[in-house]
Amino acid sequence: MPEVSHVFLCKIHRFPMHEVLEAFAIGDQGLQGCIHGGKRSSRQILLMDSETLARFGLAPGVVKENITTVGMDFQAFQTGMRMRTGEALLEISGPCHPCPRMDDIRQGLQQELKGQRGWLCRVIEEGTIRRGDAIELAALPGPVAARESTTWVQT
User: Domains plus CATH for the chain?
Assistant: First the structure.
């Protein structure tokens, strides 16, 4: 089953992410204590899968994600999908497009990560997200609902 492997907060822009054991997701805001969230923002939380990070030789948190996952098929994601992550309900608001800051990590990384930087989420229902929490699909938009997926457990 997919799960949360790391939780990160950004306390100061352009500084490394701060890893925590848990964080509270505030409804329509983001993670408490993280400066990346905001009301009505599509980037309240950034999800990134550990499998993609490993493929690029990147450590968790380095691409500024809030939640690093393990065991998720990010290629099956679509805007509008909802997932129960710990106590919180998140909704995919869209893919995260790599910004020029990725080249500060490694020259050419912005281009390499196109289509693979993770997914932006909004907080639909607040709650605590902890390292090790299961991630379960809560709802699918119409076209995706017809597809079967072994990656998700429907609730």
Answer: 3-145 (2.40.33.20)
